[in-house]
Amino acid sequence: xxxxxxxxxxxxxxxxxxxxxxxxxxxxxxxxxxxxxxxxxxxxxxxxxxxxxxxxxxxxxxxxxxxxxxxxxxxxxxxxxxxxxxxxxxxxxxxxxxxxxxxxxxxxxxxxxxxxxxxxxxxxxxxxxxxxxxxxxxxxxxxxxxxxxxxxxxxxxxxxxxxxxxxxxxxxxxxxxxxxxxxxxxxxxxxxxxxxxxxxxxxxxxxxxxxxxxxxxxxxxxxxxxxxxxxxxxxxxxx
Length: 239
Ligand SMILES: Nc1ncnc2c1ncn2[C@@H]1O[C@H](COP(=O)(O)OP(=O)(O)O)[C@@H](O)[C@H]1O
Ligand SMILES: [Mg+2]
Known about the structure:
- By secondary structure, the protein is of the alpha/beta class.
- Helices cover 35% and strands 24% of the residues.
- It has helices at 41-48, 71-77, 94-104, 109-122, 138-150, 168-180, 192-198, 216-219, 223-228; strands at residues 2-10, 16-25, 30-34, 56-61, 64-65, 78-81, 156-160, 184-188, 201-206, 209-214.
């Protein structure tokens, strides 16, 4: 369970990225987070991970409330897949990158190896284990990024624009994967057909506030409402 109550986040330059945001995700829910550029999606994900300090409000994962004392514990429950895989991958070889998290959480070398093998197999990328992380395709990089996060065995997964830079086939593979994962998922995305296919709930952010929470198949096709929130609805075309 992830619960956010009256969350406010302000950058050092005074920009208020999130104001008075509250929502709750139930275990196993897969929820899209949609909003125009600058709406506050990335800021929200970084706040949930304790990367950006909260100006006000609370983040709770299970029974644990995010604070300076609990941030490490929260990060062991929750994993963030960054928008740019290059921000996530930093070890020279895939296997080492996926092993980094579990090793850091104190797993033995044997346990770590077992987790790495299991996660790579789960994502269908065992053949990439010994490959250089700088020599992967965009789709492979995305899958390896997800593997580094899954290896830490989180309960809640946060994704920032996971379909960005993917070709249609890699995007399809990602959709299959996300639908199979049992973790609670919050997925920031501009890819509205993806949100409809993958998620049964959408949170819409506008200027840092939650303006709608409901069924993606209803909300994302509502041209007038979507216009008001600065987002292009599905089905809009100008030939
Ligand atoms: N490091 C930063 N310092 C100051 N303002 C920032 C910073 N990062 C983002 N912002 C501002 O916060 C707001 C939300 O941005 P962001 O969370 O990146 O939106 P989104 O991910 O929805 O595109 C925007 O107004 C943006 O300009
Ligand atoms: Mg963003």
